[in-house]
Amino acid sequence: MDKNDDDDRQADMDIAAGNGTRDGDSSDGVEVMEVANGGGGGGEGEGEGEGEGEGGGGSVGTSKPPLPANTVQTDAEWVSLLRDKELKWYARHVTSAEDLEDREVKCTACFRQVNHKVPGMLVRHEVLGVVVCRVCAKRFNRGEWTLDEEGYYEHCRWCGEGGELLLCSQDCRNAFCLRCIKRNLGRTALTEIQSADEWRCFECDVKQIREHRCLFFSIYQVCSGCELFSQRVEV
């Protein structure tokens, strides 16, 4: 972790203790972090090239779709694009405001505890829609997202770092590190993914991480009064 990350985390600790504020913090508890999809690169471990799918940074493979154009998506826009089936699942499994009060929330990238009751301390992962701390969100978009010679990302699309990566079997560029998969889904899920002949990544098949997405949605609903949620699930 670089000095900027340390400074950011110290500032977050000051905020949680009531000793400071950050420019750009929203008042609803969930910061709308306007960052570009696919617009940044990994932090620690950049250029390691030690895992599956990590090449030497050669030419971009031609079998993959073009990189997405830079877009800015707010949390409200993200919610508006969720499918009705997913929203109805959230309606049955949403965490109530009372339960959130006592719940321990961790960043899904660094696995540090995040005080979700302090505005701006957590944000939505721009690719996966799960909870991440603001420090990991910034690191995710620091630098460029480089591709290996087969056209896959050379850094994990969850934490933005290097390491041993598992590649998506679909026609996409995504790669995810073993550490993120094991931390968030457990050893059994990791073993199943590793032993499968083909694997659709977490962006291609969000059902694998719907509990994690539902947690962010629950916090968003409580903090921002998401009227769109109650309107759509009634359809």
Q: CA-to-CA gap between the ends?
A: 46 Å
Unreliable parts: 13-40, 42-63, 227-235
Number of helices: 9
Radius of gyration: 18 Å
Count of distinct structural domains:
1
What gross morphology would you assign? Answer: globular
Strand order, sheet with most strands: 1-2
The tally of beta strands, per DSSP, is 6
Biggest sheet character: 2 strands, antiparallel
Beta content comes to 5-15%
Q: Give average pLDDT, whole number.
A: 75
Q: Report the order of strands and helices.
A: HHHHEEEEHEEHHHH
Structural class: mainly alpha
Q: Indicate the percent of residues in helices.
A: 25-40%
Structure notes:
The chain starts with a helix and ends with a helix. The radius of gyration is 18 Å and the shape is globular. It has one domain (3-18, 28-233). It contains nine helices and six strands; from the N terminus they run ααααββββαββαααα. It is mainly α. A two-stranded antiparallel sheet has the order 1-2.
Short key terms for the protein model shown above:
single chain; 235 residues; mainly alpha; two-stranded antiparallel sheet; two-stranded antiparallel ribbon; 9 helices; disordered C terminus
